[in-house]
Specification:
single chain, about 240 residues, 2 domains
């Protein structure tokens, strides 16, 4: 409730967000320093797949082994699905980035081990979910990188929290406003990179210039080694005839 009551003053004076984060967020460092190592065991427990195992053992009492295996899969998508896992992994990544201060301001942001423990968790998740997704779990529908793109966008949004936090700490603890202004100026680079990621890299469709190049390459003359009865050759020939009509 303490943080909820502080939202109203920030709404009246948005510039107070720098001092608010600088005074309250570093106090949560030790909580996340304990939270992230606990996730080591949580992700390793996922390799046991104890929930599908319990469902399989229960269904095997009333039906055949093949039917029990079919009913035990897939796992609960609300927690073990790709979307939920992506959100939790992004949370750990943003936590490691926000609480990774340099040595000069580490005494103001908390313990410097937050970033190493987050990296260890990332390294473990690399092997845990590589095994689960490839060898253990059933195949899921491929959305073409929607979750990956969303995670990258959320990590970039988390970098803005880090910029605001460092700006507030340097303005509050520094002897002058110079270091805080330098930290705040990095938001311009962040904004350029964030807009570039959202507008230049298209996930759902290709840019018009790339579609034009693809069209020219697709309907380019086929070498003589190609069979005249191949579908690509016939389609290219029909396209050339339409151009001459």
């Amino acid at each position: 409730m303490r943080h909820v009551t502080q939202v109203h003053p920030c709404h009246q004076n948005p510039t107070d967000v720098f001092s608010l984060l600088a005074s309250t967020l570093p106090t949560a460092t030790h909580f996340y320093l304990n939270y992230v190592p606990v996730q080591w065991g949580t992700h390793l427990m996922n390799m046991m797949r104890y929930v599908p195992l319990a469902k399989y053992l229960g269904y095997r009492k009333v039906c055949s082994d093949d039917k029990a295996r079919e009913r035990a899969e897939p796992e609960d998508q609300d927690y073990y699905g790709m979307g939920s896992r992506s959100a939790r992994h992004t949370l750990i990544a943003v936590t490691g980035l926000v609480f990774c201060p340099s040595e000069s301001v580490g005494q103001y942001l908390g313990h410097p081990l937050c970033f190493p423990v987050a990296m260890i968790l990332t390294w473990r998740c690399r092997y845990v979910y590589a095994y689960l997704c490839v060898y253990a779990e059933t195949k899921k529908a491929d959305l073409g990188g929607v979750f990956w793109s969303t995670k990258m966008r959320h990590v970039q949004q988390g970098l803005l929290i880090y910029i605001v936090l460092m700006t507030g700490v340097l303005l509050q603890r520094g002897s002058s406003i110079g270091p805080g202004v330098i930290a705040a100026s990095s938001s311009a680079v962040w904004l350029w990179s964030y807009r570039r990621f959202n507008h230049r890299f298209h996930l759902d469709n290709l840019p018009l210039k790339d579609m034009k190049v693809t069209r020219v390459q697709y309907f380019s003359p086929i070498p003589l080694v190609q069979s005249p009865y191949s579908p690509i050759f016939c389609r290219a020939r029909c396209f050339e005839e339409e151009q001459h009509m």
